[in-house]
Amino acid sequence: MSEVSRILERLEQGDGIAAEQLLPLVYQEMRKLAARKLAHEKPGQSLDATGLVHEAYLRLVGPTDGKRWKDHGHFFAAAAEAMRHILVDRARRKRRPKHGGNHRRIELDDNVPAPPAAEEDLLALDNALTRLAADDPEAARVVQLRYFAGLSVEQAAQSLGMSRATAYRHWTFARAWLLEQLATEE
Question: Which pTM does this prediction carry?
Fold first, then answer.
């Protein structure tokens, strides 16, 4: 059993010190996941990789609501999901009129049109991913680890405890399914 798994077990048993010991062990890996995800976002985001890791970590080890992790891979799958929810929540918040959702940024260069808003793309992906999870939860989990955690198919397979071939089948199906769903939403 890895040290992370032992600490997760202690955390499950209510050991408050375990959360303090867990962060140094998982911080760098979570930071890499967050940085890979944020590398695909539009420039000028107010949330950086450190902030995303901190918010995700607080959601993971904060007040317990029945969340427990079997092992290192399960913890990082939960971390990827937490990061997804944080980014989707921020995108939804930005779309509200109170936060400038009815305003669009325009480039000062008149010759170059502004790129499409990443928040809209993220919300469309989240809606499609939620529908996919209802039909094929395993495929949705592979997509979530690939897109939101930046894992390779092999790493996602290992994290989810499935064979590489099964993960590739799920990824191939989910990618085609999501492309079709996102194309019909436009």
Answer: 0.54
